[in-house]
């Protein structure tokens, strides 16, 4: 008799814990179902909203290809990369695709500078979607910050994945990083320009990843090679062999027309609202500041010059059809802009749900991330 009471308590406790976990899970699943339902109601069959200016492309690639769902996107820093990420999240969400997310990083799933090798413990990541055993290979999309390493990422991605990234004019990218990551902290000066000069003349940049040549660092150049022109050029050459497309942020819509062709997507799939826009006025770049930045960020400038050239070579080869496609894409974009005038602020929405509007979903990089993360998380 004496043992019965504690046993009853233990049994009751177990039931309560299991019941609580079940309800918590139902709650999460409900959120996702409600969101999916509202998404479907507001969407056309491919998961996008209907545009009044929906157009077929002029270029004839559509007939020769089928849409690509396997994409390794290397998210670089301060390059407009979040805007591209939100496009990929929206596409993957509506098609139930699996994403590479770092399990421990619940805020955004980024891997960042953690070295990932073929032997890294896969439990660091969320498994691919599915009901059976946890699998850590055969992902459809990776869109988080990670240092580019194609042979390693090939062991994660579905075979045949397209490799893409985005880069930006290294002068404006450096200023964006300088302000966003507060690299000016502790540097005295009356203007951003003065502080930037001091930053570039000092050694503070050595302590982090964001201050110098950060685009090529994201794309796999070691800091120890910043002054080694041969290594820099070798890396750029490797990237041209390994990347299917390098987007240029300064020609965002032009780049997206090329991406549309690479992925065989529709204009609507690629419609976007600008993410992470800095509201502060952008400081001017004087000729002397630019000259200093060119020396300081030499590797990134070489990278930019190379891929800017190849982007325009690709465009030149297409002739009239490209410009007609661009005009049509701009019409779709105009519609998004009119319908979502304040779209950059909606990313503050905590979680995509039934009240998510057209604009929430178009801007919903972070919002959609949370939904995608919840959808993929399970114990392994
Ligand atoms: N479509 C488009 N075209 C041009 N520029 C764009 C676009 N989308 C985002 N941005 C600008 O990119 C900067 C933010 O970059 P990221 O999203 O890569 O930043 S982060 O590394 O993820 O924090 C940020 O730059 P700054 O405003 O100069 O800081 C954004 O304004």
Automatic annotation (TrEMBL):
InterPro entries: Gal-3-0_sulfotransfrase (IPR009729), P-loop_NTPase (IPR027417)
Compartmental location: Golgi apparatus membrane
GO CC terms: Golgi membrane
Membrane topology annotation: Single-pass type II membrane protein
The organism's place on the tree of life at top rank: Eukaryota
Family matches, as Pfam families: Gal-3-0_sulfotr
Keyword Membrane: yes
Keywords: Glycoprotein, Golgi apparatus, Membrane, Signal-anchor, Transferase, Transmembrane, Transmembrane helix
GO MF annotation, one: galactosylceramide sulfotransferase activity
Keyword hit for Transmembrane: yes
Stretches that traverse the bilayer: 7-24
Biological-process GO terms, alphabetical: glycolipid biosynthetic process
Family the entry assigns: Belongs to the galactose-3-O-sulfotransferase family.
Official protein name in the record: Galactosylceramide sulfotransferase
């Amino acid at each position: 008799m004496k043992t019965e009471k504690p046993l009853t308590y233990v049994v009751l406790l177990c039931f309560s814990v299991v019941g609580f976990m079940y309800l918590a899970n139902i709650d999460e699943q409900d959120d996702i179902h409600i969101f999916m339902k509202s998404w479907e109601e507001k969407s056309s069959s491919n998961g996008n909203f209907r545009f009044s200016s929906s157009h077929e492309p002029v270029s004839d690639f559509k007939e020769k290809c089928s849409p690509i769902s396997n994409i390794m996107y290397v998210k670089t820093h301060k390059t407009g990369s979040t805007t591209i990420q939100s496009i990929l999240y929206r596409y993957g969400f509506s098609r139930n695709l699996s994403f590479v997310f770092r399990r421990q990083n619940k805020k955004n799933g980024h891997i960042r500078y953690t070295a990932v090798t073929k032997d890294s413990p896969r439990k660091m990541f969320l498994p691919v979607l599915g009901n059976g055993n946890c699998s850590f290979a055969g992902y459809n999309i990776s869109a988080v910050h990670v240092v580019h390493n194609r042979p390693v990422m090939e062991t994660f991605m579905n075979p045949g994945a397209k490799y893409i990234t985005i880069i930006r004019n290294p002068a404006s990218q450096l200023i964006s990083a300088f302000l966003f990551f507060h690299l000016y902290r502790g540097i005295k000066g009356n203007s951003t320009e003065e502080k930037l000069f001091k930053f570039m003349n000092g050694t503070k940049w050595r302590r982090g990843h964001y201050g110098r040549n950060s685009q090529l660092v994201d794309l796999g150049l070691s800091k120890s090679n910043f002054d080694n022109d041969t290594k820099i050029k070798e890396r750029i050459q490797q990237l041209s062999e390994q990347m299917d497309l390098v987007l240029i942020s300064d020609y965002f819509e032009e780049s997206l027309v090329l991406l549309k062709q690479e992925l065989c997507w529709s204009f609507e799939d690629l419609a976007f609202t600008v993410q992470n826009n800095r509201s502060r006025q952008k400081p001017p770049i004087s000729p002397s500041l630019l000259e200093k930045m060119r020396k300081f960020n030499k590797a990134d400038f070489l990278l930019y010059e190379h891929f800017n050239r190849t982007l325009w070579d690709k465009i030149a080869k297409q002739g009239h059809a490209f410009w007609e496609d661009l005009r049509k894409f701009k019409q779709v974009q105009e519609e998004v802009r009119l319908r979502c005038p304040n779209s950059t602020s909606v990313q503050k929405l905590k979680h995509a749900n039934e009240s998510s509007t057209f604009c929430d979903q178009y801007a919903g990089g972070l919002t959609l991330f949370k939904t995608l993360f919840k959808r993929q998380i399970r114990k392994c």
